[in-house]
Design goal:
alpha+beta; 9-stranded mixed beta sheet; 5-stranded mixed beta sheet; 30% helix; disordered N terminus
Length: 405
């Protein structure tokens, strides 16, 4: 299997990931939605009907495009995705619903398919109506291309500082298949079923039930393990299109397992990039919880620790305050015996049922750099899970105090 390396930032080797698979084209476009003049409209197209699976935000203040896309993905096939950035089309009532539907019709006319075969997303500021005159003008001008994946990834960005893309290949039945993905998101990230906006493509032939199962597994163990600030977006959506363009029969057995592994690899890489690009962040935090009775227990403890503002703030100033790890773990709702718990900062064991006496200066040195590795063993079983987050800095507060677009 080939894949992009585990980059903390943008990875040139994965550029254009969503159009690496056969039969996909994409583009980005500047419609004028963003005052910055940056690209703000994106389209992804499969040259044939693609099997699809999707997951969505569980936030009750759900944006209009999420409601429309939920209906359109019920049939299990799609031809295209259309996305705007700079405006979330959320809290916009019936007008917002009508605008989201019109976006799908405009994209369908451009692609040559039914509106029900179009997945629609919006991202940006909440509570503003879409400038439909700009979309009516812009969408018909869009020109999806086989090398347009990088444009797509850039056009969906809002507060991101770099495009988040990853790609992997796998072999099944003598055929080489590709899985590519990209996502946007740097703030309002604490996913529940999906995270911000994420898009995946593959030229592998996967039936809808198998695709849905593999996709939900990958989302649970990648995007749903990322947190920046504990806030779940109103627009979270994640979708995969599998068009089978590389040929071969529907994947089963080892071939299906290889696909699921490649998808998890791609989604994990992209998710970790989102953690590193958290608004104002200077480093990624990797929190592994081992020795749990179940994966769910390990997940709950890891996510609770990595979202703790006290721990995030401490690590921004290289403070190895492992007491904040214990504090956060204790409110995760997972019973454990404190005497059996062990905690590491990188390779230093700082707690083993009691303080180990590691000098603070030595532990602080392990919190330097672009990533901090933490581990907590509960001493209960064999299950393990890892969550990713970032530090909390003064810049995060300044950025979000001034955020208007």
């Amino acid at each position: 299997m080939s894949a992009s390396h585990d980059s903390l930032g943008a990875n040139p080797a994965a550029e254009g990931a969503v159009t690496r698979a056969q039969g996909f084209s994409a583009c980005g476009f500047t419609a004028g939605i963003k005052e910055s003049g940056l690209p703000d409209l994106a389209m992804l197209v499969s040259d044939r009907p693609a099997t699809t699976a999707a997951v969505y935000t569980q936030n009750q203040s759900t944006a209009a495009p999420v409601h429309i896309s939920k209906v359109h993905t019920k049939n299990g096939t799609l031809r295209a995705v259309v996305v705007n950035s700079g405006n979330a089309n959320c809290a916009t009532g019936e007008q917002g619903m009508a605008d989201a539907r019109e976006m799908t019709r405009l994209a369908a006319d451009r692609v040559g398919c039914a509106a029900e075969d179009v997945f629609v997303n919006s991202t940006g500021i909440i509570g503003h109506y879409l400038p439909m005159d700009l979309l009516r003008s812009g969408i018909p001008q869009m020109e999806p291309r086989a090398d347009g994946g990088a444009e797509f990834a850039r056009a969906i960005m809002t507060t991101d500082t770099f495009a988040k893309e990853a790609v992997s290949t796998f072999e099944a039945g003598g055929v080489i298949y590709t899985v590519g993905g990209c996502a946007k998101g740097a703030g309002m990230i604490h996913p529940d079923m999906a995270t911000m906006l994420a898009f995946f493509t593959t030229d592998a032939p996967v039936v809808v039930d198998d695709l849905d199962a593999a996709f939900r597994f990958a989302m649970d163990r990648s995007f749903n393990m990322v947190t920046v600030d504990g806030d779940t977006s109103t627009n979270d959506s994640s979708v995969i299109l599998a068009n089978g363009a590389a040929g071969g029969p529907a994947l089963t057995g080892p071939g299906l397992d290889a696909f699921a592994e490649a998808l998890l690899e791609v989604s994990t890489r992209v998710a970790k990039m989102m953690a590193r690009d958290g608004e104002g962040a200077t480093k990624r935090i990797s929190m592994t919880v081992s020795g749990a009775k179940s994966w769910n227990d390990a997940r709950d403890v890891a996510r609770t620790i990595v979202v703790s503002p006290l721990l995030k703030a401490a690590l921004s100033k290289y403070d190895p305050n492992w007491g904040r790890i214990l504090m956060a773990a204790g409110r995760a709702g997972v019973p454990y015996d404190l005497d059996r718990v062990r905690i590491w900062i990188s390779d230093l064991c700082v707690f083993d049922g009691t303080a180990t006496g590691v000098p603070e200066e030595e532990a602080s040195a392990k919190t330097q750099g672009d990533e901090v590795f933490l581990r907590m063993d509960l001493g209960q079983g064999d299950a393990e899970a890892t969550a990713w987050g970032c530090d909390l800095t003064e810049e995060y507060v300044r950025f979000n105090a001034d955020y208007v677009t």
